[in-house]
Amino acid sequence: MKAAPQAQLRLLDLQGLDSALDRLAYRSRTLPEIAETERLEARLAELRDSVVAAETEVSDLDREQRKAEQDVDQVRVRADRDQKRLDSGQITSAKDLGNLQSEIASLQRRQSDLEEVVLEIMERREEADGRVTTLRAEQGTVQEELGEVAKRRAVAQQQIDDESAATGAARTAVVKDVPDDLLALYEKLRGQFSGVGAAALLRGQCQGCHLALNTVDLNRIRAAAPDEVVRCEECRRILVRTPESGL
User: Fold this and answer.
1) 211 and 148 belong to one structural domain
2) Could you give the number of structural domains in the chain?
3) Where does the record locate the signal sequence feature (predicted)?
4) Per the domain annotation, does 246 fall within a domain?
5) How far apart are CA 26 and CA 19, in angstroms?
6) What is the domain range of residue 97?
7) Are 121 and 199 found together in one domain?
8) What are the pLDDT tens digits along the chain (247 aa)?
């Protein structure tokens, strides 16, 4: 392939711009705000699940408390009824009186036990309510943090977009100075070799693979016409000769 030396030199300008665009694209993909957003969103998902679990526990405890309070009321009603029978004086049999007194004492103990159950449930419900409150407060905090991160990410991304636009405009201007066939080869090589299709030959070393050329290859390049497009024998990238090539 043939191309004017000046056109080949423009490949280095093009490569520099393309490398800059690649770095900008990498920055865009790896903004620290992206990882921070993912972390915060994961935490929000955890908090949503925790809130649902805590609210479900509160609801279950509400039902449990109502059932326990109903049991207390039933025992209390029965104990009050027996106490009224005892106080009425209608029961004269010593055996019946003893049985009734025994039943009242048993109901009182049962009522006391059930009231302890109610208190224990109320304490558990208060703890569950506290967890819901704490979790919801953290949800709000994380949401605020997520909003701040989104703002920082938008600013950083806008800076990258502006720089990319300017670099892209400069690239468009450079492309006009590169022949179509040379540009096509450069683009093909860029796709094959990690975005680097052309490299300078600097003091006998290819700046694409950073390997020093042997004497045979250097002599071959020295003998090549100025408009001949030469390639690195090691990495096959386009080698651009400059005054610093060491030829």
Assistant:
1) no
2) 2
3) none
4) no
5) 10
6) 31-175
7) no
8) 899 999 999 999 999 999 999 999 999 999 999 999 999 999 999 999 999 999 999 999 999 999 999 999 999 999 998 888 887 877 778 887 788 788 889 999 999 999 999 999 999 999 999 999 999 999 999 999 999 999 999 999 999 999 999 999 999 999 999 999 999 999 999 999 999 999 999 999 999 999 999 999 999 999 999 999 999 999 999 999 999 998 8
pTM of the model: 0.75
User: Are the C-beta atoms of 26 and 160 separated by less than 8 Å?
Assistant: no
Confirm if 80 and 74 have CB atoms less than 8 A apart: no
Task: Tell me the three-class secondary structure of the chain, residue by residue.
Answer: CECCHHHHHHHHHHHHHHHHHHHHHHHHHCCHHHHHHHHHHHHHHHHHHHHHHHHHHHHHHHHHHHHHHHHHHHHHHHHHHHHHHHHHCCCCCHHHHHHHHHHHHHHHHHHHHHHHHHHHHHHHHHHHHHHHHHHHHHHHHHHHHHHHHHHHHHHHHHHHHHHHHHHHHHHHHHHCCCCHHHHHHHHHHHHHCCCCCEEEEECCEECCCCCECCHHHHHHHHHCCCCECEECCCCCCEEEECCCCCC
Tell me: do 37 and 122 sit in the same domain. yes
Same domain, 43 and 58: yes
The rounded distance, in Å, linking the Cα atoms of 223 and 245 is 14
Question: Can you give the pLDDT at residue 85?
Answer: 82
Cβ density class 193-232: b for 16+ within 10 Å, e for less: beebbbbbbeebbbbbbeeebeeebbeebeeeeeeebbbb
What gap in Å lies between CA 186 and CA 62, rounded to an integer? 73
